[in-house]
Specification:
The complex is a heterodimer of chains A (133) and B (400). Helices cover 6% and strands 38% of the residues of chain A. With 133 residues, chain A is mostly beta strands. The radius of gyration of chain B is 20 Å and the shape is globular. Chain B starts with 10 loop residues before the first strand and ends with a strand. The chains are: A mainly beta (133), B alpha/beta (400). At the A-B interface, strand 4, strand 5, strand 6 and strand 8 of A face helix 4 and strand 5 of B. Strand 4 of chain A pairs antiparallel with strand 5 of chain B. The complex binds zinc ion.
Amino acid sequence: MPVPDEQSAPFWKAASDHVLTVAKCSKCDQATLPPDLTCPHCHSTAPDFRFVPVEGGARIRTWAVIRRSFLSGFKVPFVLVDAELDAYPDLRLIGQLLDGADAKLSIGAPVVVEFEDLAPGISVPAFRLKVAA
Amino acid sequence: MSGLFKARNEVALVGFAHSKVVRRADRPLGVTAVETARAAIADAGLSVDMIDGFVSSPLLPTSGDHQVEDGVTTVTSAWLSQHIGADPAYAVGFQGIGQLTGSLSIAINAIASGACDYVLFHRALHNPQGGYNDSAMSQARGAMQWAAPQGFFGAMPAIAMAYNEYCQRYGATREAMAHLVVEARKNGARIPWSVWNGKPLTVDQYMAEEMIFEPMCRLDADMPVEGVACFVLTSAERARDLPHRPVYVSGFANGYPRKNRTMIHWTLDDMMEAGDDLSARLWENCGLGPQDIDIPQLYDGFSPFVYIWLESLGFCKRGAAHEFILSGGIDSDRADSLPVMSGGGAIGNGRMHGVPQMLECYLQLSGRAGERQRERATTGLACHSTPHFGGVVVYSNDPG
Ligand SMILES: [Zn+2]
């Protein structure tokens, strides 16, 4: 369960509304995820990140099937996906695949971000395979 | 920084000692460290009062819920120098990942600069009770909030993803990895102090193992152990009067992360890009190239790292490491091979964090490898961790 802090609160608030956001630096306007203490692009010590909504399309860079979880509370097996956001190819997001452990995956396969509700007001990003229309 | 290392071949390894590597120890790590340090100092033909420098990296590398207590779960250089009864001018530690090459760089520089004359360099690894990386965390704060809520926790899932990207991109098979792990265990089985002494592995055994982090299985990670290794370093000049053939440091390079990522998200491309950069700096620093290295010892704390090092350092073309391994290219029983696992590595010795790589260079280049002694052993290279957190040290027994 994520515990939002002063910096991350807007991200988790948007997530609870099932909206994905990325952090934009107030000095250079470049996007990053997750937000760091300084801006990873212009290295400003006062990035004052704004969280702006981003379209949830992404492409699979890689994945792994997890059959043993170090953390308690996770039902195995599950698939962890590392995907590149279509809107910001440099930004990679890790989330569970909602299609189950037997889904057929490949590098570059399109996915969309969806949210899993963990508790009232708490949702975390995950992925679902985009089915060709 | 550019050009040759100014202190090239002016600092030498002159002795070592290694405790037995065990799954669980029946006494505190610090006690084993003191005894191993004494043995290394004696091996170098020195006495404790002559050691004026202590360097180490004390990190207990786990994501699990464990307390750190100096002398019990870690051994810092300050703790060791006090408990062995030394009176050092210099006792420092390296903080960070890539502990072995990071701390060794500090020790090398200390001798080269004259900050001290004789350094006791050590690494002490503790295996805590309970699951190594298990955590009962239910609330993910700070950097953890971006990873743990998705079930992304501990190094293995991250490495499994990077390795899968390699497999998908270059067509690497599980059989190739089986050959790598079997090679590491074959050599580890021949090492008296290894936790895997006398316990080689077969390809079939590897293939039968469940992929708990598919495409990785348990055998792709080194086993947490308890053990201590100590080395003594001094100047090439002082080394001349000591009992063993000195092994000189020809150069070194370390790498550091450059990209903002979710914690522990070590991507394949981040590692490869850092590897290319580190490799260029390394070869310039030591004045050698991959074709000059007789005893390359690549880091295998997670087996896929060997592919990255093989390719980054220029021993194989990008994407070709798995085929090279599958065709017997790293078989230490072949005289014409590139014996990158001849020291057993982490998989063949237990989680000794870069010690097996360094020790194999020392043993082979000083002519102390016994039955495992290779004929061609003038230069060596030992890696630790990945190119974006770790490093490489190059050795030679030829001071010219
Ligand atoms: Zn910025």
